[in-house]
Amino acid sequence: MTDDIEAVQVSVKERLAQKRIPWEAVTLGKELGRGTETVVYQGNYEQRPVAVKILNADARGETRYTFRTELEIVLGKLEWHPNILNYYGWGIRPDDDSMFLVMELFEGGPISKRRKWVSRRPHLVYRIMRDVARALAYIHAHELIHRDLKSSNVLVDRSVHTAKLSDFGVSRTQGGDEAVMTALTGTYRFMAPEVIRGEHYDARADIYSYGILFNELLTGTMPYEDTYMTPVQTATAVVSKNLRPRLVKASEKVPTAVVTLIERCWALDPQQRPSADEIAAFLDDICGDVGTASPDGSLAESDSTKRSSSFERNTHSRARSCRQQ
């Protein structure tokens, strides 16, 4: 298993060496989740609660590669960020040579488990999506693409006031190998048209997924769950018919500018999509309005418009051009 990290750049290898944790420094508690070839436990490391992800010793090469990619990115390439899950280190179990990751325990779990609940509280959705936008802005500035943004990869704290992006197993560097950057990667419900078509894509594919996620949390429904189509049929319709999930309706709590932002994020043309920095700045304004709004999260359209009129005009213009394609 140690040979798995030999291909990593020297600078990254040095950082990984500094983050190596001896197995005896970790204690395991209850099981939190189980995948086909990984298990996640609640544990303890340096007198703090953590989550410990363990890769099966007999895992397939593809799974080993994904696991290795995650540790290279989160431990070797990224610094600490308040909206990215904190990873403390990695190691190898001596009894079976299996690799493990030690990470922050974010006890609220994935936002996918609170989809219906949070959809009735749009003011919380705006905070969550602002945090996700900040995380994307950070990794995009480091020339990385997440490639699998979805509700199960966004974790929240118990109060659902802070969100963190997780699961970097299929993330890649922008401008990398053409074969990699045309690969069909991600979850079909959140997959950008250019990814489905096997075309070259960049960070704007993450922005498309972001729009799908934003709409999911505001509507409280999984994308395309009302279409009764197979994954292949859905993916085909996304490309050929510009199919998108049922769009949230503007209301007292959901400003028109937010609805149009979602349309702009999932635009067919990647050039029509905003940057993560632009989205984060817009949601800073929206969250500021929510902070002064009524307790139920109602947001006056006029307040939002005052704060973001130039953004909204640009958003409406781009959305109209997208619908005309």
Automatic annotation (TrEMBL):
It comes from Cyanidiococcus yangmingshanensis. Coiled coil: none annotated. Mg(2+) binds at N153, D167. The active site is at D148 (proton acceptor). Residues 26-283 form the Protein kinase domain. Residues 303-315 have a biased composition (Basic and acidic residues). Keywords: Magnesium, Metal-binding. One of its GO terms (molecular function) is ATP binding. The keyword Magnesium applies. InterPro entries: Kinase-like_dom_sf (IPR011009), Prot_kinase_dom (IPR000719), Ser/Thr_kinase_AS (IPR008271), Ser/Thr_Kinases-Pseudokinases (IPR051681). This is Protein kinase domain-containing protein. Pfam families: Pkinase. Residues 292-325 are annotated as: Disordered. The keyword Metal-binding applies. Residues 316-325 have a biased composition (Basic residues). Signal peptide: none annotated. Gene3D superfamilies: Phosphorylase Kinase, domain 1 (3.30.200.20), Transferase(Phosphotransferase) domain 1 (1.10.510.10).
